[in-house]
């Protein structure tokens, strides 16, 4: 009798467990940078993130690979001059482009990161190349460019990625500092294009990123950026730093951050979010909003994050005025740019 009762218990427990199984819907979620965005350029940024989410989702369907999905989503924004990544990246103090990128696979924690990249349209693909073709995680500067050439990346003519908008932004930034200065003094020049509300932003705040999850719970993350206008040459932001601007782990989820890079690095934003998911049971949205609110309180700086937790819950949150974002799941495309208005449409 006792054995029969025990078997009934096991059967009921099995049925309950099956009933609690999480059904994960494949999703690709992207962002186009957090900050104060001029009204006139919001439509182009929204169109860009919607297209990126669609491209990433179609890639996920056709390849079944979340890493390829986030890479292709980011590549689409690196070719779009509306964003601060690839073509359209902002300029450092000397008028040069130096880009950062990272990509990470949540199934094995493999990752690739690059910094100080010049004259390559797709730093995110170079980061993936580092991940897949070297025994290292991070390459930077001249040697990263040599590696790119050795792996048949197209090296563009010097300055080919520079836009008139990025040149004007650098000029405006320099003119805003004591009426214009001619030499870089990083000890006396404050970073006036930080992302606190009400502070003027010079150049696009359009760092780009993507996170994705498949039906089996595999996640990936990718982030690419040109940094901040007028930065000191050699400056590296949060985007390529694992645990700060980018991270993915099937056990918790994936994160891509955007905003004030120095604060995001100091606060270890991505790791904090995923720790709350894994160890405290918060959803992606709960963890993301908690960490960004705490970061703002601690540093008085703003940021934005897109995230997906290991159960497929999405996190979309920003403490800045704007952050273009979009995600596609099944035949629905959702998108927004302000905190109060979100939109969606059915796709054919």
TrEMBL record:
Annotated catalysed reactions: Cleavage of a beta-linked Asp residue from the N-terminus of a polypeptide; L-asparagine + H2O = L-aspartate + NH4(+)
Active-site feature positions: 207 (nucleophile)
Keyword Lyase on entry: no
A GO molecular-function descriptor: beta-aspartyl-peptidase activity
Example of a GO cellular component annotation carried by this entry: cytoplasm
Family matches, as Pfam families: Asparaginase_2 (PF01112)
Annotated site location: Cleavage: 206-207
Positions bound to substrate: 235-238, 258-261
Record key words, sorted: Autocatalytic cleavage, Hydrolase, Protease
Any one Gene Ontology BP term: L-asparagine catabolic process via L-aspartate
InterPro entries: ASRGL1_meta (IPR033844), Ntn_hydrolases_N (IPR029055), Peptidase_T2 (IPR000246)
Role played: Has both L-asparaginase and beta-aspartyl peptidase activity. Does not have aspartylglucosaminidase activity and is inactive toward GlcNAc-L-Asn. Likewise, has no activity toward glutamine.
The protein's assembly and partners: Heterodimer of an alpha and beta chain produced by autocleavage.
Family affiliation: Belongs to the Ntn-hydrolase family.
Protein name stated in the entry: Asparaginase
């Amino acid at each position: 009798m006792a054995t029969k009762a025990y078997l009934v218990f096991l059967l009921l427990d099995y049925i309950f467990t099956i009933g609690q199984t999480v059904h994960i819907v494949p999703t690709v979620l992207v962002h186009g940078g957090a900050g104060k965005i001029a009204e006139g350029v919001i439509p182009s940024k929204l169109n860009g993130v919607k297209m990126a989410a669609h491209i990433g989702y179609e890639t996920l369907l056709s390849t079944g690979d979340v890493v390829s999905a986030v890479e292709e989503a980011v590549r689409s924004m690196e070719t779009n001059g509306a964003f601060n990544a690839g073509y359209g990246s902002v300029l450092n103090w000397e008028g040069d482009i130096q880009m950062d990128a990272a990509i990470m696979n949540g199934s094995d924690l493999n990752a690739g990161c690059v910094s100080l990249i010049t004259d390559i349209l797709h730093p995110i693909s170079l980061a993936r190349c580092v991940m897949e073709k070297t025994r290292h995680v991070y390459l930077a500067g001249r040697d990263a460019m040599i590696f790119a050439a050795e792996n048949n990346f197209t090296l563009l003519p010097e300055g080919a990625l520079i836009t008139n908008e990025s040149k004007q932004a650098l000029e405006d930034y320099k003119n805003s500092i004591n009426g214009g200065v001619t030499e870089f003094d990083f000890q006396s020049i404050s970073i006036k294009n930080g992302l606190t509300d009400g502070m003027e932003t010079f150049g696009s705040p359009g760092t780009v990123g993507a996170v994705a999850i498949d039906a089996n719970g595999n996640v990936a993350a990718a982030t690419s950026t040109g940094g901040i206008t007028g930065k000191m040459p050699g400056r590296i932001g949060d985007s390529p730093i694992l645990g700060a601007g980018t991270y993915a782990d099937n056990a918790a989820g994936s994160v891509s951050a955007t905003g004030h890079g120095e604060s995001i690095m100091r606060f270890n934003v991505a790791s904090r979010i995923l720790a709350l998911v894994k160890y405290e049971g918060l959803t992606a949205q709960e963890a993301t909003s908690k960490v960004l609110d705490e970061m703002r309180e601690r540093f008085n700086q703003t940021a934005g994050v897109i995230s997906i937790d290991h159960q497929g819950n999405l996190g979309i949150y920003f403490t800045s005025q704007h952050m273009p974002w979009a995600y596609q799941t099944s035949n629905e495309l959702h998108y927004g740019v302000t905190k109060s208005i979100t939109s969606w449409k059915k796709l054919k």
